[in-house]
Specification:
Elements: E1 13-20, H1 27-38, E2 41-52, E3 57-62, H2 65-76, E4 81-86, H3 92-103, E5 110-112, H4 127-137, E6 143-144, H5 148-155, H6 162-169, E7 175-178, E8 187-194, E9 199-205, H7 214-227, H8 232-248
Parallel strand pairs: 1-2, 1-4, 4-5, 5-6
Antiparallel strand pairs: 2-3, 7-8, 8-9
């Protein structure tokens, strides 16, 4: 048996606080696969259980606050967490739970994927969750990664474009990545906004079909790149490139949306 001093260097640890998707397309399984592909170790803490498939969400149940805190504390007290990735929270109480967890991890980057709707349109949180995310959680996040429909919900602008939503949301978060693909544009435009006025647009070809777990894949890959020490704007580019390749090679294991094929970067070239 190897002694502790002779063990190989450990991969960066990313604490994932998200829901479980039994279809394996989104949620914690997406987090784990995407982080493995970045060369990171995923430490998954379950926030919610869902009844869903690749078509849509049928029901969900948010776990008890104490259970989530216990899971997260077990990770934090044992593993050197280098980044935190948030997915489905589902309730205001869970927003407050995450804030408590982050008090144990001062200075650790937090990637917030504000999961409010499933790709099939089903709800993944009560109406007041979006407000709590915006007012309480985004100020603690290093970067938030909403798609345009989620950005509109968070900003309270049902018909707002990405720039209008960003103007309102940057009052709450330092960096904002609003992903495209939900309109009629020929190419997909993913827009990164900084509170300091920085703007950057990442463009990629639009792919046919719709995808289950693309947002989870992107946010987890981004958290992994930050855990590896990559600077934010470079990490965004790396995560977007990886995610696009997983969608290009996506599979159809069920009767609904495509599921990203989350292979390591070397296999996604």
């Amino acid at each position: 048996m190897n002694s502790p001093t002779s063990r190989p260097t450990s991969r960066p640890v990313v604490l994932c606080l998200s829901g479980h998707d039994p279809s394996g397309g989104a949620g914690l399984q997406a987090d784990i696969e995407a982080l493995l592909a970045q060369g990171c170790h995923a430490a998954p803490a379950v926030t919610a259980l869902t009844v869903q498939d690749t078509v849509n969400v049928r029901d969900f149940r948010v776990l008890d606050r104490d259970w989530v805190l216990a899971q997260a504390r077990a990770v934090v007290e044992d593993l050197p967490v280098a980044a935190v990735k948030l997915g489905m929270l589902g309730s205001v109480e869970m927003v407050e739970t995450v804030l408590q967890v982050m008090t144990w991890l001062p200075g650790v980057p937090l990637v917030c994927d504000p999961v409010l709707r499933a790709g099939g349109g089903g709800t993944l949180g009560r109406d007041d969750v979006g407000y709590a995310l915006r007012e309480r959680l985004l100020p603690r996040a290093s970067v938030a990664t909403p798609n345009l429909p989620e950005a509109r919900l968070l900003a309270g602008l049902p018909d707002g474009d990405a720039d209008q939503c960003a103007e309102r949301l940057l009052e709450h978060v330092e960096w904002l990545l609003i992903t495209g693909g939900h309109g009629g544009e020929t190419d997909v435009h993913n827009r990164l906004y900084g509170r300091d006025g920085q703007r950057q647009v990442f463009t990629c070809p639009r792919l046919p079909g719709s995808y289950h777990g693309s947002g989870c894949t992107l946010a987890s890959a981004l958290a992994g790149r930050l855990a590896l020490g990559e600077r934010l704007q470079s990490a965004v580019q790396s995560a977007l490139t990886y995610t696009w390749r997983t969608l290009r090679d996506a599979e159809t294991p069920g009767n609904g949306q495509y599921v990203p094929r989350r292979l390591p970067l070397d296999f996604c070239a």
